[in-house]
Design a protein that fits this description.
Helix content is 36%, strand content 17%. It has 448 residues and is an alpha/beta fold. It folds into two domains: 163 residues, Alpha-Beta Complex (Aspartate Aminotransferase, domain 1); 274 residues, 3-Layer(aba) Sandwich (Aspartate Aminotransferase, domain 2). The chain is globular, with a radius of gyration of 22 Å. The structure holds 3-[O-phosphonopyridoxyl]--amino-benzoic acid (PXG).
């Protein structure tokens, strides 16, 4: 299929890049030297100038089943023909119920209900609002405080930005939400550098929650939200025992625990959800990205029966939760989601990720002695490689590495400052692992 895409035609390569204000992008640099893709299949993108580049990023942590999956495209097409749109408020369509049941089946026991939205950001804000509303319904209306974590990322809504802990994402946007606080990040390079999997050191970082409880009073705190593996900030796996400890402390104080599994969901860590890997069941899980293999926007929140049922009171004609989106459970997204979950099941992709994890980790760790590498972390089929920053130009080496990868080495990777993030589709072969690591090594040397 890739061979059939004819690059550089007027259709595939727009000649005016001015109008599109690109998200989270260095716009001027992009428009001077565009990194333009026009096609994709399996492990590869094809560029506007006809080169085939290997995708070490699953696009943006989305395409866990690889690109161009016919089964998903066909499901979307068939759905568009059959039912293009239906209102999600007060009316239903069968695939929404089917997909919700399928997702609940994959989720840890006790998490039985799915609220759909269209992105990870909406999922984060939805979970935070449900948490506050739940506390109110339970007669705990003073519990409105929300706790995130330094270096956390929960999308770009005002709620997600407020509980998020990446300074650059917050500093231009004013006071955000009132009544938010943050746990410390779980990273200590001196104690954790070059760890494969969960670091031995760092469970105690969860105890900072006791400090916040002392400071604010448990009776003011609605929920804590964390990523089981902080992805956007540059891949920080949870230390051993950290999530269990967080669960114990939240439970003890009547605080809800939300896992943001927008990245860790759908196989990234070798399980349907990271909650399963760690044997820790939160009260809510947020998801997005991999649920549709990135093919149609979709996100959602999985809640416990306890939370859902608390809302199911009052007169039957009344809306129980005044929240939702026009495109919640959009028919095309539901069709894509069902087809995606079929692929994950039939090709055993979560199991495949788990089986490949040690080989992937070992291969990536071979870059330890490459120039400027100051730490490498791996977990599941994900790795973060920290490069030393150029003095007075934090992020420049990472940015140049991403550009060198795309323009010179047929490699797509993600960056977080000077950290290179690898998170390939779960379909990759051992040969692909070798190819990716070889190319990353070349890129690291190119920006030395
Ligand atoms: N939570 C987490 C944990 C995420 O990683 C979101 C929420 C927000 O999802 P939406 O669908 O609203 O974008 C994300 C998104 C990167 C990168 O380069 C990752 C994300 C977004 C932008 C860049 O690692 N993750």
């Amino acid at each position: 299929m890739l061979d059939k895409i004819k690059p550089t035609s007027a259709v595939n390569a727009p000649n005016d890049l001015n109008a599109f204000w690109m998200p989270f992008t260095a716009n001027r640099a992009f428009k001077r030297a565009p990194k333009m893709v026009v096609g994709a299949e399996g492990m590869h993108y094809i560029t506007a100038d006809g080169r085939k580049i290997i995708d070490a990023a699953s696009g943006m942590w989305c395409t866990n089943a690889g690109h161009g999956r016919k089964e998903i495209a066909e499901a979307i097409k068939a759905q568009a023909d059959e039912l293009d749109f239906s209102p999600p408020f007060q009316f239903g369509q069968p695939k929404a119920f089917e997909l919700a049941s399928r997702i609940a089946d994959l989720a840890p026991e006790g998490l039985d209900h799915v609220f759909f939205c269209n992105s990870g950001s909406e999922a984060g804000d939805t979970a935070l609002k449900i948490a506050v509303a739940y506390q109110q319904i339970k007669g705990q209306g003073s519990r409105t405080r929300l706790i995130g974590r330094e270096r956390g990322y929960h999308g770009v809504g005002f709620g997600g930005t407020a509980v998020g802990g990446i300074g650059n994402n917050r500093k231009m946007f004013g006071p955000l939400l009132n009544g938010v606080d943050h746990l410390p990040a779980t990273y200590d390079r001196d104690k954790q550098a070059f760890t494969i999997g969960e670091p031995e050191y760092g469970a105690h970082f969860a105890e900072a929650l006791e400090g916040l409880v002392n400071l604010h009073g448990a009776n003011t705190i609605a929920a804590v939200i964390v990523e089981p593996m902080a992805g956007s900030t540059g891949v920080l796996p949870a230390p051993k025992g950290y999530l269990k400890k967080l669960r114990e402390i939240t439970k003890k104080h009547g605080i809800l625990l939300i896992f943001d599994e927008v990245i860790t969901g759908y196989g990234r860590l070798g399980y349907a959800f990271a909650s399963e890997r760690y044997g820790v069941t939160p009260d809510m899980i947020t998801f997005a990205k991999g649920v549709t293999n990135g093919a149609v926007p979709m996100g959602g929140v999985i809640t416990s029966a306890e939370i859902h049922d608390a809302f199911m009171t009052g007169p039957e004609h009344a809306v129980e939760l005044a929240h939702g989106y026009t495109y919640s459970a959009h028919p095309l997204a539901c069709a894509a989601g069902i087809a995606t979950l079929d692929i994950y099941r039939d090709e055993k992709l979560f199991e495949r990720a788990k089986a490949l994890e040690p080989k992937f980790a070992e291969a990536v760790m071979s870059l330890k002695s490459a120039p400027n590498v100051v730490d490498i972390r791996t977990v599941g089929l994900t790795a973060g490689i920290d490069l030393a920053s150029i003095a007075d130009a934090v992020g420049k080496r990472g940015f140049e590495a991403m550009n060198a990868g795309f323009h010179d080495h047929e490699l797509m990777l993600r960056i977080a400052g000077d950290t290179l993030a690898l998170t390939p589709p779960l379909i990759l072969s051992e040969d692909h692992i070798g190819e990716i690591v070889d190319k990353v090594g070349k890129v690291i040397r190119a920006v030395a």
